[in-house]
Specification:
11 helices, alpha/beta, 337 residues, 2 domains, Peroxisomal Thiolase, Chain A, domain 1, seven-stranded mixed beta sheet
Length: 337
């Protein structure tokens, strides 16, 4: 077995990997939600002074990494890698947002699980001695995502109750081999789970089995129980997926109900803001982590978190060709020490 392996798919970090700064920028709808006070910037409109929604998303990325560096008093030259991705074709939100940064770039795609994937890669780079400082981040934009994956906004297509609202926002963290923490302790990499669901307006149901697989694997690999954590947080399962996830985990012998929440249910007030099943998008889990979770851990109100972003690995082409939706979830254990 590999030296740092803990069970089947989990890595136990042996080096100090600390979150030393975090930043989040969100759209006006997200700013009006229950977590509005935790975000660094709330933009006034979805265009943010740009000529397209895609350019606005790239600006979210550019300004978020700038805030991460300013908060940590680091310059681009201090950063070994920036790891980022988004929902747009060829990850242009990240590519164009970071093209002037001068920082070595690793572009990734994990759909809405991208924040977890970036933190896993960044943590391994630091733990392996390949980097001192790594920025992990991602973004999404409601308008650009609707345009690419569903329908032009101008059509005013009615959304079914299972549909979720893509978060407009970017979030990221700076990981370092120095700093007081919180620190990252365990990483559980997800595997692709496809239960045959083809409804692109029911992402929660499609992604829930992947979350169940990763969470149950994490507990089996580490020997930990749900009670170990103050909060188990999935990425964007929404109301439908969260209920399925809880039920399936109980069948696996893990009752997480008392300490479980979902970023897609935290970021919006579903009744007042009419987001149907809740939030989604790469920016959903990223902004909740970089805003609410990081600040609450700094205050000591939360001390042990299992962060589990979830992603649906579909494309417009695969949907049009009648393919089912492959899904994945990654788990990152974050603790105050």
């Amino acid at each position: 077995m590999a030296e740092k392996s803990a069970g089947n798919r989990t890595v136990k970090l042996k080096s100090h990997v600390s979150i030393v700064s975090a930043a989040s920028i969100v759209g006006p709808k997200e700013g009006m939600g229950p977590l509005g006070r935790y975000f660094d910037v709330i933009i006034e409109d979805e265009m943010w002074g740009e000529k397209s929604w895609e350019k606005a998303e790239s600006k979210l990325v550019k300004e978020t990494i700038s805030k991460i560096l300013n908060k940590s008093k680091k310059s681009p030259a201090d950063i070994n890698f920036v790891i980022s991705g988004d929902l747009l074709n060829q990850c242009i939100g990240s590519n164009f947002g970071l093209r002037d940064s001068g920082i070595p770039f690793l572009g990734i795609y994990g759909a809405c699980s991208t924040m977890g994937e970036s933190m896993i890669i960044g943590s391994m780079l630091i733990d392996g001695g390949f980097a001192d400082n790594v920025v992990c981040m991602t973004s999404s934009h409601f308008c650009s995502a609707e345009k690419q994956f569903r329908f032009p906004l101008e059509l005013g297509v009615q959304r079914p109750p299972t549909a979720q609202w893509t978060v407009t926002g970017a979030g990221g963290v700076l990981l370092s081999n120095e700093g007081p923490g919180p620190v990252i302790t365990y990483l559980t990499t997800g595997k692709i789970v496809d239960m045959g669901i083809k409804d692109a307006n029911n992402m929660g149901a499609a992604m829930a089995p992947a979350a169940v697989d990763t969470i149950s694997t994490h507990f089996k690999d580490t020997g930990l129980s749900p009670e170990y954590y103050d909060l188990i947080l999935t990425g964007d399962l929404g109301a439908v997926g969260k209920s399925i996830c809880e039920d399936l985990l109980k069948r696996e012998g893990f009752n997480i109900s008392e300490r479980y929440n979902d970023c897609g249910l935290m970021i919006y007030d579903r009744k007042k803001q009419d987001t149907h099943a809740g939030g989604s998008g790469c920016g959903c889990s990223a902004t909740v982590l970089a805003g609410y979770i990081y600040q609450e851990m700094q205050k000591g109100n939360l001390n042990k978190i299992l962060f589990v972003p979830t992603g649906a690995l579909l494309s417009p082409i695969s949907t049009q060709q009648g393919e089912s939706i492959p899904c994945i979830a990654h788990a990152v254990s974050i603790e105050n020490r």
